[in-house]
Amino acid sequence: MATSAKTITLAYTGASGLPYGVRLLEILLRSGVTVHLVYTQAAQIVAKQEMDFILASRPQDTEKMFAERFGDYSGKLKVFGIQDWFAPMASGSNPGDGMVICPCTMGMLGKIAGGISDDLIARAADVMLKEKRTLILAPREMPFSAIHLENMLKLSHAGAVIMPPNPAFYTHPQSVQDIVDFIVARVLDHLGVEQTLMKKWGE
Ligand SMILES: Cc1cc2nc3c(=O)[nH]c(=O)nc-3n(C[C@H](O)[C@H](O)[C@H](O)COP(=O)(O)O)c2cc1C
Questions:
Q1: Pocket-forming residues, ligand 1, beta carbon under 6 Å
Q2: What is the pTM of this model?
Q3: Is the peptide bond preceding residue 103 cis, with omega within 30 degrees of 0?
């Protein structure tokens, strides 16, 4: 795969859909992107429930776990604690090239829409918006309430890209992996990271 000098913040929150976020991490690393990963406590619970793996409380343990899973990308993956205010993405002086929250809870969406920056994910998202960088949210809930929809509209007006992980079937997916890859490919397109997971329409 092509290499990229980009730095992307990737955040996991406690919504269903962690397989999308984990596949995204794998492809970003394989593409040469530097990934700054941060996750909530609820994401740790969902990781156990959905994927049967441990997102550890100590960042260095998670770095080791992903190195064992995906190979060692020599320092390209850095994991940060949810209250680590010294992390680069906490400041407008070092926001990186983009941020993805995948999956994104309704709670995190509401916090960001309300400007409440009380953890590293909400703060980094706030930074991306004020610095006019790419912020992608993959919110997952069904159905959406008026509050969820209003928060999404507010964030869209503020410059965020709202990408609910809704699979399409015109590509004739044959497996869950195909469905996951469809979502991940669209997110990569928006990040400007070249991908070969899914052919572009008409090609
Ligand atoms: C297995 C599981 C699945 C969940 N799925 C969702 C979901 O799809 N969307 C959502 O907004 N919350 C979902 N939740 C609830 C959130 O995890 C909960 O609201 C939590 O407080 C969110 O915290 P966070 O935003 O800090 O990650 C789920 C919880 C569990 C345990």
A1: 13-16, 40, 42-43, 45-46, 49, 105-108, 140-141
A2: 0.97
A3: yes
The CA 159 to ligand 1 mean position distance, Å, reads 24
Copy the structure tokens of residue 31. 């593409």
Which residues have a Cβ under 8 Å from the Cβ of 202 and sit 6 or more positions away?
A: none
Which amino acid is residue 3, in one-letter code? T
- The CA 72 to ligand 1 mean position distance, Å, reads 30
Q: What is each CA distance from 36 to 11, 89, 147, 162, in whole angstroms?
A: 8, 8, 30, 20
Residue 4 reports pLDDT greater than 70: no
How far is residue 192 CA from its own chain's centroid? 14
Tens digit of pLDDT for each residue in 61-118?
999 999 999 988 878 999 999 999 999 999 999 999 999 999 999 999 999 999 999 9
Secondary structure string (H, E, C) spanning 149-203: HHHHHHHHHCCCEECCCCCCCCCCCCCHHHHHHHHHHHHHHHHCCCCCCCCCCCC
First to last CA, the chain: 19
Q: Are 121 and 87 in contact (CB under 8 A)?
A: no
**Residue nearest atom 22 of ligand 1, based on CA coordinates:** 14
| Domains of the chain by start residue, with CATH | 7-191 (3.40.50.1950)
Render the burial of 111-149: b for 16+ CB within 10 Å, e for the rest: bbbeeebebbbbbbbbbbbeeebbbbbbbbeeeeeeebe
